[in-house]
């Protein structure tokens, strides 16, 4: 059961699991509004008497709203999830978190890194991780997945990689602050979907960073996309530093120790394949 299954991440995860033969029920706000009593009770009905795994993706993301109100809206959804699991226990819960919990964490941050969420979305994710751990510990296994910069798959029109590729193709100017020297990592939706598959098949109480294990500066990312598309970017590099100009990337060592087969995912290969597919 994918809660938030009609959004970008949820729909891609649902498609992947369906392709493997899983009986997937993808639910969005229209089908199951977890901020309402009616939606909460519907979730209980859907779970009752079923051997269900839950993938929880439901959230107002930063791209939609980044306010305290959106934070509390998201927390109400988690509250409904906890209540429903207490009434009709699933086999497991996979909670899709975010790298935002690390704040300005630096490069190759491990799961044991310090938590210093700098925005309401990160605060919501961090609070939700902790309240879910406490509330579900006697109900079912909980796996938490943290990642940033997801791209590719079905319906990607908003990722940074999509926007950079589109700007190169349409010859629109790309402006990079901090001279584009900020390091970030990016996660193919195919990798995230594969990780969800694996944790459903082998549920555990654990937290994993989802990453290809490679970070790259944004200016080098632009140059790589140029090369992949055989195009030229109209690039403006500014040396001013904005509040969001900080390096953040996640270590995938723990993930690869648990699931060694994921080492086959190569960031630049996945970026190249994606930008060529949208050209």
TrEMBL record:
Extent of the signal sequence: none
Record family assignment: Belongs to the NAD(P)-dependent epimerase/dehydratase family.
Pfam families with a match to the protein in the record: Epimerase (PF01370)
Species, as recorded: marine metagenome
Domain NAD-dependent epimerase/dehydratase span(s) in chain numbering: 1-210
PANTHER family per record: DTDP-D-GLUCOSE 4,6-DEHYDRATASE-RELATED
Record's protein name: NAD-dependent epimerase/dehydratase domain-containing protein
InterPro entries given in the database record: Epimerase_deHydtase, NAD(P)-bd_dom_sf
């Amino acid at each position: 059961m994918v809660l938030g299954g009609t959004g970008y991440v949820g729909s891609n995860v649902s498609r992947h699991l369906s392709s493997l033969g899983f009986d997937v029920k993808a639910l969005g706000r229209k089908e199951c509004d977890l901020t309402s009593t009616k939606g909460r009770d519907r979730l209980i009905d859907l779970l009752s008497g079923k051997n269900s795994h839950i993938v929880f993706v439901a959230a107002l993301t930063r791209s939609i709203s980044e306010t305290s109100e959106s934070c509390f809206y998201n927390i109400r959804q988690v509250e409904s999830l906890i209540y429903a699991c207490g009434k009709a226990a699933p086999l497991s819960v996979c909670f899709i978190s975010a790298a935002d919990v690390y704040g300005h964490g630096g490069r190759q941050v491990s799961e044991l890194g310090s938590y210093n969420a700098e925005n309401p979305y990160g605060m919501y994710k961090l609070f939700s991780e902790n309240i879910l751990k406490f509330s579900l510990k006697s109900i079912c296994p909980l796996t938490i997945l943290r990642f940033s910069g997801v791209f590719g798959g079905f319906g990607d029109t908003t990722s940074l990689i999509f926007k950079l590729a589109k700007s190169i193709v349409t010859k629109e100017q790309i402006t990079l602050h901090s001279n584009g020297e900020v390091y970030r990592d990016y996660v193919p939706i195919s990798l995230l979907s594969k990780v969800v598959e694996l944790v459903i098949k082998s549920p555990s109480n654990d937290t994993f960073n989802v990453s290809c294990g490679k970070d790259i500066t944004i200016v080098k990312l632009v140059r790589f996309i140029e090369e992949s598309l055989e195009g030229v970017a109209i690039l403006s590099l500014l040396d001013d530093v904005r509040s969001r100009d900080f390096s953040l990337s996640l270590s995938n060592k723990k993930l690869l120790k648990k699931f060694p087969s994921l080492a086959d995912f190569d960031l630049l290969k996945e970026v190249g394949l994606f930008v060529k597919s949208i050209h």
